[in-house]
Amino acid sequence: MGFLTFLAGKSKKATAKIKDKKDNVDVKEKKQKTxxxxxxxxxxxxxxxxxxxxxxxxxxxxxxxxxxxxxxxxFDDSPSMTALGLVTEIRNCYLGFGDLKFNYESIKEVKPGxxxxxxxxxxxxxxxxxxxxxxxxxxxxxxxVLLDPERLWFTMKDGKIYKQEITALGNLTGPPGMYLLVGGxxxxxxxx
Length: 192
Known about the structure:
By secondary structure, the protein is an alpha+beta fold. About 40% of the residues lie in helices and about 25% in strands. It is built from 5 helices and 8 strands; from the N terminus they run αααββαββββββα. The protein is globular.
């Protein structure tokens, strides 16, 4: 056997070993990635809720994800409301912000029946008239809004949302934040 043939044989074996090691690493990496994306049933239910929000689902479609239309929605800085009140308010936001999106960092079940949506940030462009509560209507401004982050906690029951708690991580969140960012004022009208 010639020297070049000897080297060629060694080179093929070395290449085969490197390829085998690389394939094993790829398989291990794929398994690790798969482990990271596995979701619990409750986390998947919340993920479905967030997807419904982003596709601008109907009130009925959103309410099906709650245990009832009277499921409690609790804010850290405002009075509580029902699920029906929340999804009706969100639908109102869709009318004023046609490209409204709910972006978040992660969804995870932190303990059985408790799901956390981390760093929710809502964005949208004010393309139609928008009104919040009983305050004056703000005509279209075409302003793009970026709300402050929020943290959402969901208490789950039988794979549905039993309670939602919303924690603002800034001052401009939710419909009031949207209203302020497009030029609205949250002051009572002047008395005559």
